[in-house]
Amino acid sequence: MNWLLIVLTGHLLNSVAFLMDKFLLAKKISSPFVYAFFIGALGALAVLLIPFGFVLPNSPEIIRALVAGATFVLALIFFFAALKRNEASRAVPLTGGFVPLFTFVLAYIYLGERLAGNQILAFAALVAGGVLITLDKKGKSSVPGYIYAIIAAFVFAVSFVITKQVFIEQNFVSGFVLSRLGGLLAALAILL
């Protein structure tokens, strides 16, 4: 029964975070680029983990980790743009519904991961539910906001699949530090 409490608490905290994101984008931070910049810049704090097991991998693995972090910041830009244009109750489930779909396809192609038949049925039901919950019968939602949410979902999926590959190749600390530095580089590119 403890797992249910943990899951519900996690979802509650996640919803609070999304509402805070929506509030900040509506009232305090005018641009999704600015918000994504600050989140990417926080990646600099990952260097504090270097003494706890960081090992410098080979060049292709470094590049993959940097790309994983940079694509995550890019996904945040599209997600925050969707959140700015639509209600959080529309943008978040739409992005959350498409991320697993895109991740499934990309992991199938690039990582060779497969699901069994009953797992595919359960997966399809969850994705369909996540997408259907976003439908707006009153037509108040922004179509560009929906497009941004779907693009964000795709870029998040790219980031997640690359990140999984990074953690297959490297230890946690090395992969985490390098991917966060990739996010920092993306933030600096936004600044430029």
Question: How helix-rich are the residues, as a percent range?
Answer: over 70%
Mean pLDDT, to the nearest integer, reads 90
- What structural category do the secondary elements indicate? mainly alpha
% residues in beta strands: under 5%
Based on Cα principal axes, name the global outline.
globular
The main β sheet shows up as:
none
Q: What is the N-to-C succession of helices and strands? A: HHHHHHH
Number of helices: 7
Number of strands: 0
Q: Unreliable segments (pLDDT under 50, ≥5 consecutive)?
A: none
Radius of gyration: 18 Å
Notes on the structure:
The model has no long low-confidence stretch (mean pLDDT 90). The chain is mainly alpha-helical. It has helices spanning 2-28, 32-41, 59-85, 88-111, 117-132, 143-169, 172-191. The protein contains seven helices and no strands.
What are the defining features of this structure?
192 residues, mainly alpha, globular, single chain
Brief summary of the model shown:
With 192 residues, the protein is mostly helical. Helix content is 79%, strand content 0%.
Protein topology:
Blueprint: H1 2-28, H2 32-41, H3 59-85, H4 88-111, H5 117-132, H6 143-169, H7 172-191
